[in-house]
């Protein structure tokens, strides 16, 4: 039997501690609000104006979602301005959780008055936000890159006061660097999930269960978004497969339409956090597994998702619901008694089926993409338990699941980069699609 060394176990635990954090609403507008709140804090006075420079992927993922706790307002200007009027920078991805009616009203007033200017930043990382504020006496700038709370530069009155190269002076702003995702392997993470002392991770997992189940229930109870979860249960019945898909979709229904409940994220995404959690909870109840078995299954789900997404990067044209659904399918296979071979088969079957779903920004239809991805993952699990697998040489599928994962990583990070660019052009009306017909 393959056995990981203690240092490797510590690395997996550190990865989980970095990844499984609470976030309120879609993480891209929240990251903008965080940058704005941090810039205001650095400015030291009330801002008179803010300019936000964003990468295309940030623009894409903020355009169609309601900013949580904003009273139904949408867009980059709202996210940045609410970060100014009601943000608390120390809360990071829950930065606007305490925004009140006064902050929301002031946000609406400032946005209408032209307080915020937005620019498209080119030749920057896929995840990039620069928030520049001007007051009566000072200016300040905060730049975030690569990760949603990863501040790489801060400047006041044009003088740099923090750069990531000198992060020791500001450890709270340092990049996510204590864990090494490049050392992950499927076999290693499965060994970790099977043998780690659960006391090291139970608090993280309980919070994930509690938060993500709550927003899913909210999506089922009320008319959020496109009502994908509710529609499925009303139309397809309530067997275990439908419940697993619908519960995941319902969480996204609520989250994408401005629900203020927090989500424990995965790979920087609340939708991915929901997807790795809810199907596993549904099948754990169906299989009547112990709490310990559920915890270990959630470790499988979270780590498989993080592992696959590591090769793709934080934002791309590749829909992250697919990598998260791979994690959920792997965990369901694990709870059903599947060994490493069958878990690998589940991942391969999922990627061979829905690996081409594109991301055209965060919005209510993300719930439907989650539904499609989880459906594919459940089919993949059912195939794997019957020893049925897509074969090497069929499309992107390789003999070794690790190579298949790397193939999808290359496609998502490199191959789909031009697609990502053109999706953005369509979304911001920079192309005449009729001229291409």
From TrEMBL:
GO biological process, any: L-cysteine catabolic process to pyruvate
Domain Serine dehydratase-like alpha subunit: 171-425
Protein known as: UPF0597 protein HMPREF9623_00504
Domain of life of the source: Bacteria
GO MF entries: L-cysteine desulfhydrase activity
Matching HAMAP family: UPF0597
Provenance organism: Stomatobaculum longum
Family designation: Belongs to the UPF0597 family.
């Amino acid at each position: 039997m393959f056995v990981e060394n203690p240092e490797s176990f510590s690395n997996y635990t550190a990865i989980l501690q970095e990844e499984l954090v609470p976030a309120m609403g879609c993480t891209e507008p929240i990251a903008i609000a965080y940058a704005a709140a941090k810039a205001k804090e650095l400015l030291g006075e009330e801002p008179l104006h803010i300019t936000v420079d964003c990468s295309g992927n940030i623009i894409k993922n903020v355009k169609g979602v309601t900013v949580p706790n904003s009273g139904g307002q949408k867009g980059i200007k709202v996210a940045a301005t609410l970060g100014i009027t009601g943000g608390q920078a120390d809360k990071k991805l829950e930065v606007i959780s305490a925004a009140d009616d006064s902050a929301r009203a002031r946000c609406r007033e400032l946005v209408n008055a032209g307080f915020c200017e937005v620019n498209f930043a080119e030749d920057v990382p896929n995840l990039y936000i620069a928030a520049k504020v001007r007051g009566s006496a000072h200016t300040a700038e905060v730049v975030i890159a690569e990760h949603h709370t990863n501040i790489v530069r801060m400047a006041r009155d044009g003088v740099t006061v923090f750069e990531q190269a000198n992060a020791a002076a500001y450890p709270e702003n340092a990049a996510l660097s204590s864990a090494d995702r490049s050392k992950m392997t499927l076999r290693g993470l499965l060994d970790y999930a099977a043998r780690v002392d659960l006391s090291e991770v139970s608090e993280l997992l309980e919070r994930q269960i509690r938060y993500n189940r709550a927003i899913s229930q909210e999506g089922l109870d009320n008319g959020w978004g496109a009502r994908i979860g509710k529609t499925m249960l009303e139309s397809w019945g309530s067997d275990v497969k439908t419940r697993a898909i619908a519960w995941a979709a319902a969480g996204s229904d609520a989250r994408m339409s401005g629900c203020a409940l927090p989500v424990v994220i995965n790979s920087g995404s609340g939708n991915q956090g929901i997807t790795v959690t809810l199907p596993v909870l549904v099948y754990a109840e169906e299989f009547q597994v112990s709490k310990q078995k559920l915890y270990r299954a959630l470790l499988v789900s979270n780590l498989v998702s993080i592992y696959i997404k590591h090769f793709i990067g934080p934002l791309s044209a590749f829909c992250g619901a697919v990598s998260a659904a791979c994690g959920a399918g792997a965990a369901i296979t694990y709870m059903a008694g599947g060994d490493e071979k069958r878990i690998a088969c589940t991942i391969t079957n999922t990627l061979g089926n829905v690996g081409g779903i594109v991301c055209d920004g965060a919005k209510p239809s993300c719930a439907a993409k989650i539904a499609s991805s989880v459906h594919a993952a459940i089919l993949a699990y059912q195939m794997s338990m019957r020893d049925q697998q897509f074969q090497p040489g069929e499309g992107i599928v390789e003999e070794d699941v690790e190579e298949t994962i790397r193939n999808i990583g290359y496609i998502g990070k490199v191959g789909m980069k031009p697609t990502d660019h053109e999706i953005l052009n369509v979304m911001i009306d920079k192309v005449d699609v009729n001229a291409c017909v």
